[in-house]
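Input record (one chain):
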Amino acid sequence: MAEYINLTAENIDKEHLCCAISDKKHQYGVNLKKEWLKQRIDEGHIFRKLNANGKIFIEYAPLESAWTPVKGNNFTYIYCLWVAGSYKGSGYGGELLEYAIEDSRKQGKNGVCVISSKKKKPFLSEKKFFLKYGFEPVDSIGDYELLALSFNHEVPEFCSNARSMETDSKDITIFYSLQCPYIAHSITQLQEYSEESNIKIHFEKIDSLEKAKSVPCIFNNWAVFKDGKFLTNTILNKNMAKKLFG
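The corresponding structure, as predicted from the sequence alone:
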């Protein structure tokens, strides 16, 4: 029987965050993520992981307090479900998802939802996996989809502001939050790229629930705009920025 751990206020400082478990350059981001999580736990935010030295976890929260431009009545929102490396194919992803679904039922939720895409994209949950568990597309913005498993036929939807996928600024603009350990290092990389290339990048920090609900695009924790148009949700490094921005 697999052993899982839920992060709590009591154990979060001593437990690793498995999404950035082995890379020292992301340690600062891990610390920021833990501070962000400490503020979310009382809101019902769950970070559940396999008790192993690997990247096997699920992270979810009540939709009303989830930092994403999605709205609905009494749903659970899944930020991330990740099983990596040699742990793939061992059933851990299904066990984690089933836990979240059962937990939501016990709490009297109306269902569970997650952002995915019509074609697989980095940093988003894979659509095919969720369809196996009864999730269905209930809303979409371009290639991005909101999947939901409804317990009573009620469904969530993207906030109206998210449908814009545009900003007034023509500068490269990046909306970000500190809920992913990879983001802090990415920002450092892009700031270096900006200085070296003399290309201006504007960073828009999402540091409140209100801001997260009102972003003008699809948003899980990162969104890149160029020339006022949404470009990607992929967290970038310096080399990726060179290819995208010249």
